Amino acid sequence: MTIPQPAGANRAAQVVLRPARVSDMFLLMDLADQVGYSLNPEWIRTRLRAEPATEDHVVATLHDIPVGAAHVYLSPRQTPEDAVRASVTALVVDEEHRDERIGSRLLDRCEELARQMGAHTLEIVIPSRRHEDLHGFWQRHGYARDGSSPFAKVLGARP
User: Fold this and answer.
1) Of residues 91, 94, 92, 80, the one with CA closest to residue 122
2) 15-154 has which fold?
3) On the chain, which terminus has fewer CB atoms closer than 10 Å, C or N?
4) Rounded distance between C-alpha atoms, residue 107 and residue 42, angstroms
5) Alpha helices of 41-147 — where are they, by DSSP H?
6) Cα-flanking dihedrals φ and ψ of residue 105, to 5°?
7) Cα separation values, 117 from 1, 73, 91, 137, Å
């Protein structure tokens, strides 16, 4: 859905980020469909009820209309010595609102949530071969390839 926009206005600055709700279920299914994924409604309901200390979903809205979403969760440690990692498993912006920096806003929020969860590293676990055109996006935001995931970033201290 295209939203009328004054010339020269920065849409990303007008975006409001909020926690996802069960009422967003069909939006989330539509966004997933736009990037080639099919989500089960019951799976979405279960995920949206997850403990926010270990998992969170964010919706980007523009004039109260959802235009993007992201999912971040705290990855289980393999050993007690492992650094705490969080993972972004989904980050999608409605196809009519791409290239408006909304994805950047969502990624910034995922980083903030990962820090709140106690993560030292945020990894991108969205299948890269399906989204090779996003490699530049991750790199512009400070993510680099590492041995355990396609892209990861060491998070600094909370601002």
Assistant:
1) 91
2) Aminopeptidase (3.40.630)
3) C
4) 26
5) 41-48, 102-116, 135-140
6) -60, -45
7) 34, 9, 18, 24
Q: Which letter does DSSP use for residue 149 in this model?
A: S
Give the tokens for residue 29.
Answer: 């299914």
Domain ranges of the chain: 15-154
Predicted TM-score of the model (pTM)? 0.84
Half-sphere exposure of 144 (CA within 13 A, CB side): 5
- C-alpha atoms less than 13 angstroms from C-alpha of 99 in its C-beta half-sphere: 3
Q: Which of 83, 82, 86 minimizes the C-alpha distance to 73?
A: 86
C-alpha atoms less than 13 angstroms from C-alpha of 157 in its C-beta half-sphere: 1
| Residue among 100, 72, 98 nearest 85 (CA) | 72
Q: Cα–Cα distance between 100 and 79 in angstroms, integer?
A: 40
Q: Mean pLDDT for each consecutive 10-residue tract of the chain (159 residues)?
A: 48 87 88 83 81 87 92 80 85 92 96 94 76 83 83 77
24 close to 66: Cβ distance less than 8 angstroms: yes
Whole-angstrom distance, CA of residue 106 vs CA of residue 70: 6
Burial of residue 157, with CB atoms counted within 10 A of its CB: 0-12 exposed, 13-18 middle, 19 or more buried: exposed
Q: What does the alpha-carbon distance between residue 112 and residue 109 come to, in Å, rounded to a whole number?
A: 5
